[in-house]
Design a protein that fits this description.
The complex is a heterodimer of chains A (708) and B (232).
Chain A lengths: L1 H17 L37 E8 L2 E9 L4 E11 L7 E14 L7 E7 L2 E2 L5 E10 L3 E10 L8 E3 L15 E2 L7 E12 L4 E7 L5 H5 L9 E10 L2 E8 L3 E10 L34 H17 L2 E8 L3 E8 L5 H15 L6 E8 L2 E9 H7 L4 H7 L1 E3 L1 H4 L12 E16 L2 E18 L2 E13 L29 E14 L2 E9 L4 E10 L6 E12 L12 E2 L2 E2 L3 E10 L4 E9 L5 E10 L5 E9 L3 H4 L5 E9 H5 L6 E6 L16 H5 L4 H6 L7
Parallel strand pairs in A: 17-18
Antiparallel strand pairs in A: 1-2, 1-15, 2-3, 3-4, 4-5, 5-7, 6-10, 7-8, 8-11, 9-11, 11-12, 12-13, 13-14, 14-15, 16-17, 18-19, 19-20, 21-22, 22-23, 23-24, 24-25, 25-26, 26-27, 27-30, 28-29, 30-31, 31-32, 32-33, 33-34, 34-35
Helix pairs in contact in A: 3-4
Chain B lengths: L5 H14 L3 E2 L7 H17 L6 H13 L5 E6 L5 E10 L2 E6 L7 E5 L2 E6 L5 E5 L1 H8 L4 E10 L5 E20 L2 E13 L4 E9 L4 E7 L6 E6 L2
Helix pairs in contact in B: 1-2
Classes of the chains: A mainly beta (708), B alpha+beta (232).
Chain lengths: 708, 232
């Protein structure tokens, strides 16, 4: 049997290396995912295929007590990452269902050519308990448009059946050896027994495809528990493309186990309507050259008032708030608040066109200052002649004509118009709060009603608060004992969900200000978040044309009562005393290629010192998908399950969904576990995310919308 | 016009619940009901297909518009949706004229140069700008030959993407043309264009004075063919 299998495996390798007589296919892309949720058209085995760049897929697979839910993201054209949550019934006597979290990475080293296959290297479950861990080198070659052949070498689980050899030594998986999990077991990567696997997929019709593979995953742990019979190494599957981004799969594993998988996918690059469906802007008002010399209007106070009213009305029609205006003979300066356009370039483009229609012909220099939280964030200068000249030219020419300056360097800016302050805003709406990955119940949620209000007292001054009332949910049903060895800074979060009364999420008074050219400041005082109250101060250095920013934050905070009324509770917890002072130094850098990095170093809530590294893939339409990891002086043993804090974060712009401009967006963080190490205060209005949208690097990203 | 993805409906509803508000006094905040309505309207618009417009009504509106003044007027037909719009000039910038619907304040517009559409706004998947200099030279000069045309659109990440088309211009024989107040002999110029991913065929009707009185032009995958006819 083993000899026969080897021949099959070698046959596939030879086939992939030499078999193609057809021309080069489209780069090996697929929207299918395998049973581990990784991009690929086989079943349990990996392939060298990739999903389209940016593709985000969620798959749910089930067979005979085995469930795998995987979120997979094509991070770059060559690199994909996956986060998986598995549940296996009766895998150990200790748990009815054994839940496990794991991460995968796959990198395409070589692209397919006319004669050679694509080659990828992958790590499966490289940071987790190691239950699913395996590494591989795999090659895939397309033959024509429909057939793809795959062959590879796998270690770990992928080398657990009929080994072809061994390299070094590898620690076998045992439940006792899991420990706190969540560690990089790099000593074991590409070590131990290895096996050769292979398979083929064939696109039968536009809707159906079939695949077959020779699997080298022996399911050792499951077989030991008699959960699975492995009658054959062969797996087969039938895939059905229900809709463009919805795939259904039925599969047969080892001739014994019948299962199914459902995969949903989307791509942040594909919004509902590219370019949006918003109504047309005003066209540029073109001046009569003879009237450009006329300055008579400047001597008429009533004319100035009419200009202000006209600009205000025109901007309001575009959904932009005019906060101030100064018009001189040859130049005009307006300060605006943009709360509609998620593409800052569109707000600027519409503002300039409104100005071109409302200002006297003598005005040539147009200055627009973007106000954020009541402070000037940047000033753009645009020549009116350029505006008239470039209206029908490619957008890049307008970008070259625009100048961005720090408002404080530019000089004075207009005083707020009467009526700008004070200003009161309120919102009432539903909220959804979730708790994931609790072994007793992997998904819990509360739905409730939230009322939020902001009172803008004056330039940079805000009083903001949020009150919520749970309507229905089960977040209060968490019963797991908290055994954290650290001060319980987050692990008591379930206590905050037990109240049935209206509760105060936050209530703060904050002051935003400019501390000097390139410098911004924030001071927040009050109930900063659901769990902490105190004072938070922040300074940010961010030149208006720079992709680099540096920040510092210092907080004095004490834990709030679990009922989230106005009281504070003792800082003494079973794991230790919660310190009052925390703070961080931060560096932010936009790499300019769709990636954004952030480094934070300092003292975390439990008094632990360390740093957080965050890397986001940022799409130019506002989608962000990233991952973070925090390493502090807390040992894995002290930290507990998971060993260190890590997670995935995302932002979805609402404009992407509805095709209309809006600055509203949904953001969230997905943590495998929330423990006490590496935790920071959650403070509203941190400066970097507040300011960066108004600076040139971010505005230039969406410059295509300047003329939209 | 726009291919809508099924998952967007699900995401729309989820985001509406998780993100938007029920009600607010903020002008720019979209309440959940508004978001859901927008998603449903877009879905309905997609399912509507090509509209059938009563031609008698169109002719009636043309007569009314022509009788109301002496401003330039044009009729625009959108093949993909069956929509018809009577247009007037709302702004002029050098050789470019921006047109919007006559008799309404609807904020959708097209821009023309030499009476060939070079840009649209407010129609979804808009044509942001285009180069038509060579095209105008070929068409108005009734020349036979090859010329390049460039169309610019926004992609899903708000980046300008250019569609470069190599077009073959072939003047045809003379024919009569009647539209609104225009009654004239014209020469039809057929244009066959090839892009990296497909083909499209335009035509232009050129009067003896070199004026393009009607043009049927392809404006991109999302917009399809537009026919722009002068009425005066």
């Amino acid at each position: 049997m083993i000899r026969k299998r080897k021949i099959v495996g070698l046959g596939v390798i030879c086939g992939t290396a030499l078999g193609s007589m057809s021309g080069l296919a489209d780069p090996l892309k697929t929207k299918l995912t395998n049973n581990y949720g990784n991009p690929g058209s086989l079943i349990d085995m990996p392939t060298a295929e990739s999903a389209p760049d940016g593709q985000l897929a969620t798959s749910v697979m089930y067979f005979d007590g085995f469930t795998r839910t995987t979120l997979s993201f094509q991070i770059t054209d060559r690199l994909s990452g996956s986060f998986r949550y598995t549940g296996t019934r009766n895998l150990t006597p200790t748990f009815g269902t054994y839940y496990d979290r794991s991460f995968d990475l796959k990198f395409r080293v070589f692209n397919e050519t006319t004669w050679t296959p694509a080659v990828s290297v992958g790590l499966r479950d490289f940071i987790g308990t190691g239950l699913l861990s395996g590494e591989y080198v795999v090659a895939t070659k397309s033959i024509g448009d429909r057939l793809r052949l795959t062959g590879g070498v796998g270690w770990g689980r992928l080398g657990s059946y009929a080994s072809d050899g061994s390299i070094g030594t590898r620690t076998s998986f045992t439940f006792a050896g899991v420990g706190t999990g969540g560690n990089f077991n790099y000593d074991d990567w590409f070590q131990g027994d290895y096996s050769v696997f292979g398979g083929a997929s064939f696109q039968v019709t536009d809707k159906f495809s079939v695949s077959a593979e020779y699997s080298t995953d022996n399911y050792d742990v499951a077989q030991n528990q008699d959960l699975i019979k492995r009658g054959s190494p062969w797996n087969v599957a039938l895939d059905y493309r229900w809709r463009d981004d919805v795939h259904l799969r039925a599969f047969l594993l080892h001739g014994e186990e019948l299962g199914a998988q459902l995969t949903f996918s989307l791509n942040p690059k594909n919004p509902s309507v590219p370019g949006g469906t918003e109504l047309a802007p005003l066209p540029v008002g073109v001046r009569d050259q003879e009237s450009a010399a006329d300055l008579g209007w400047a001597t008429q106070p009533s004319r100035r008032q009419a200009i202000t009213s006209g600009v205000n009305r025109s901007l309001a029609q575009a959904g932009i708030n005019l906060e101030g205006i100064d018009v001189e003979g040859r130049s005009a300066h307006v300060t605006i608040r943009n709360e509609r356009y998620d593409a800052g370039a569109e707000a600027l483009g519409r503002t300039l066109r409104s100005l071109s229609r409302e200002l006297p012909a003598s005005v040539e220099s147009l200055h627009v200052t973007l106000m954020t939280n009541g402070i000037p964030a940047s000033t753009m200068t645009f020549g009116r002649t350029d505006l008239e000249r470039l209206e029908n030219a490619p957008a890049r020419e307008a970008l070259a004509a625009a100048t961005f300056t720090d408002t404080l360097r530019f000089g004075d800016y207009p005083d707020p118009l009467p009526g700008t302050y004070p200003r009161f805003e309120w919102t009432i709406g539903p909220y959804l709060r979730t708790s994931l990955f609790d072994p007793d119940n992997p998904f819990r949620a509360d739905i409730g009603v939230r009322a939020k209000a902001v009172y803008h007292l004056g330039s940079g001054w805000q009083v903001a608060g949020s009150v919520a009332q749970k309507v229905i949910g089960n977040l209060d049903e968490v019963t797991r004992p908290n055994t954290s060895q650290l001060p319980h800074v987050r692990s008591d979060s379930s206590q905050y969900n037990k109240t049935d009364e209206p509760y105060l999420e936050n209530l703060t008074i904050a002051k935003y200000g400019r501390l000097g050219p390139d410098f911004y400041g924030r001071l927040s005082l009050g109930y900063l978040e659901r769990m902490y109250a105190g004072v938070s101060g922040e300074v940010l250095w961010k030149p208006v044309n720079s992709r680099l920013a540096l920040g510092a934050e210092v907080n004095y905070a004490r834990p709030r009562d679990f009922d989230q009324q106005f009281g504070l509770r003792s800082r003494v917890t079973p794991g230790g005393v919660i310190p009052e002072m925390t703070g961080h130094l931060s560096a932010y850098y936009d790499f300019g290629n769709g990636f954004h990095g952030q480094l934070d170093a300092g003292r975390y809530l439990a008094g632990d010192w360390g740093g957080t590294i965050t890397l986001d893939r940022e799409f130019k339409n506002g989608w962000k998908i990233g991952a973070f990891a925090t390493f502090t002086d807390v040992s894995a043993q002290q930290f507990g399950e998971g060993s260190f804090d890590k997670g995935i974060r995302f932002t979805i712009p609402l404009s992407w969904v509805i095709g209309q401009p809006t600055t509203q967006k949904a953001s969230g963080v997905l943590r495998p576990l929330t423990r006490d190490g590496g935790q920071r205060l959650e403070v509203n209005g941190r400066l970097y995310e507040t300011i960066r949208d108004s600076h040139r690097p971010d505005i230039a990203k969406s410059w295509g919308k300047f003329w939209r | 016009m726009t291919r809508r993805k099924p998952h967007l409906y699900a995401i729309g509803f989820l985001v509406a619940v998780a993100l938007t508000s029920g009600c607010t006094n903020k002008d720019q905040e979209l309440p959940a009901a508004s978001v859901i309505k927008t998603v449903l309207e877009q879905r309905r618009a997609k399912q509507e297909g090509v509209r059938k417009i009563d031609e008698r009504l169109v002719q009636f509106q043309i007569k009314r518009a022509l009788a109301s003044g002496d401003e330039p007027l044009a009729l625009m037909r959108i093949s993909k949706t069956g929509s018809v719009a009577l247009l007037r000039v709302i702004e002029t910038n050098g050789p470019y004229r921006t047109w919007a619907a006559w008799g309404t304040t609807e904020r959708r517009s097209v821009t023309t140069r030499g009476d060939v559409i070079t840009a649209t706004r407010g129609l979804g998947t808009d044509l942001m700008s285009s180069n038509v200099n060579g095209l105008l030279r070929m068409v108005t000069g009734l020349k036979d030959g090859i010329e390049r045309q460039v169309l610019r659109h926004l992609d899903g990440e708000n980046q300008i993407v250019e569609t470069v088309a190599d077009c073959a211009f072939t003047p045809d024989g003379p024919q009569s043309f009647s539209s609104g107040e225009i009654r004239t002999r014209v020469t039809r110029v057929d244009v066959f264009c090839k892009t990296e991913t497909g083909r499209f065929n335009n035509y232009y009707l050129v009067s003896a004075g070199g004026r393009i009185v009607e043009a049927k032009t392809w404006l991109g995958d999302g917009l399809g063919y537009f026919t722009f006819s002068l009425l005066r």
